[in-house]
Amino acid sequence: MPETCDFTVFGGTGDLALRKLLPALYMRDHEGQLPPDTRIIAVSHSDLDDAAYRLQVRAALAEHLAPGVLREDVLERLLARLHHVTLDFSDPDGWHLFHGLLKDRPSYDETVRVYYLAVAPRMFGQVCERLDEIGAVDEHARVVMEKPIGHDLESARAVNESVGRVFEERQIFRIDHYLGKESVQNLLVTRFANTFLEPLWNSSWVDHVQITVAESLGVGSRGGYYDQAGALRDMVQNHLLQLLCLVAMEPPTYVDRETVRDEKLKVLQALKPMTPEVIDRDTVRGRYDAGQVDGEVVASYDDEVGAGSRTETFVALKTEVQNWRWAGVPFYLRTGKRMDRRASEIVVVFKRPPHSMFPQAEGVTTPNRLHILVQPDEGMRLHLTAKEPGPGGYRLRPVSLDLAYATAFDQRLPDAYERLLMDVMKGNPTLFMRRDEVEAAWAWAEPVLHRWASTPEQPLGYPAGTAGPTAAAALLERDGRTWQELDS
């Protein structure tokens, strides 16, 4: 960890900064993990001085931090680190004022400078070019890019090119907060630090894999953005494919900044191509209608953003990793808004025993399943078949071995942004996406977008508060499978 750091947030008064970034920085300050000489500089169009911005951040932390963690001494220490710069990105004079603040420290040449782009992707290149023009980019500088990185392959390449003209690839951190979750990181440890699973982690023993990211919320205030994106761009192309990569990747020589990303890229390049025939047969898109979520009546997507949209709020699809380890094993991906629960999980379903040794037993032998719970309750659950205690023959029933991180380790689980922001300061890109990963993911997803746009069919409707369109269940049922819910 560096001794000095200037952490600049472009878009410092926005929702992401106030809801996620500043609470994460507060918690790391609370744990004594921020570099001792850290400044946090917010850049925005808002006409705020330092004092007014600190009041805004104080209110945001009180709203978004968990009860009981807000300590006045830590809060005052964090607030003292804060500065606000009012800046029109097209105004050269404002940029020189910002550079003057950066240089206003004796250790300028040794300071790590992090530039977090919490602004619209179309502004990424412009901000980076301005930073270069004022001389604020050197070997100690790093830039963080939030998704979406483009809306298709061509635009993603354009964004990467514009930022890449200023920053070297080693200085660019493309953030996906799912990769900072403890359960996702622990997937690597479970696979590669234990010997009992790896011999089974292949097509000989795995029947199929399911990856679900379900949200009970609607589009809310993001309706304008979401209607231009949709579930495939917003979730599948990044979050779900990254989870798939961690499940399917080969063991790296060791876990390091490039070795893990090399193996993830190989998975993306091995995904079964999405031809028109495959898309028509193996994808389902839906959009939520009015319904009930948690006992509350909620509006339809059309009522929230306007009628006539063809944007999907739900996607289910089937794909395959075409390599030696996984050939023939289907991977089912599913994501949606206004579903019956909020949950992100990976389910690895193993094959049934090759021979039934208990023909007179009561009950059934169910396939073993490993549930990896990403949110809201991070942990793992291994489903087994066991004998119910008692005399008089075999009575079989499913049981589970549970690992809940919150109770197993008896400590608070840090938010994903807490881990990822510290990795940026350290210069560790292991949990961030590399340019070739982003572009490989777009190259795979783009044919689906084009096929959907070229057909007249509307997304299938599903009532809010349900598990999505019935066609999503049929996607598995035709293969003799069902979606595996946690308690099923």
TrEMBL record:
Its EC number is 1.1.1.49. The keyword Oxidoreductase applies. NADP(+) binds at residues 88-89, 147. The keyword Oxidoreductase applies. It is an enzyme of class 1 (oxidoreductase). One of its GO terms (molecular function) is NADP binding. Gene3D superfamilies: Dihydrodipicolinate Reductase, domain 2, NAD(P)-binding Rossmann-like Domain. Pathway: Carbohydrate degradation; pentose phosphate pathway; D-ribulose 5-phosphate from D-glucose 6-phosphate (oxidative stage): step 1/3. It catalyses: D-glucose 6-phosphate + NADP(+) = 6-phospho-D-glucono-1,5-lactone + NADPH + H(+). GO terms for biological process: glucose metabolic process; pentose-phosphate shunt, oxidative branch. Keywords: Carbohydrate metabolism, Glucose metabolism, NADP, Oxidoreductase. Substrate binds at residues 177, 181, 215, 234, 337. The active site is at 239 (proton acceptor). One of its GO terms (cellular component) is cytosol. Residues 9-186 form the Glucose-6-phosphate dehydrogenase NAD-binding domain. InterPro entries: G6P_DH, G6P_DH_AS, G6P_DH_C, G6P_DH_NAD-bd, NAD(P)-bd_dom_sf. Residues 188-484 form the Glucose-6-phosphate dehydrogenase C-terminal domain. Belongs to the glucose-6-phosphate dehydrogenase family. HAMAP family: G6PD (MF_00966). NCBIfam families: zwf. Catalyzes the oxidation of glucose 6-phosphate to 6-phosphogluconolactone. This is Glucose-6-phosphate 1-dehydrogenase.
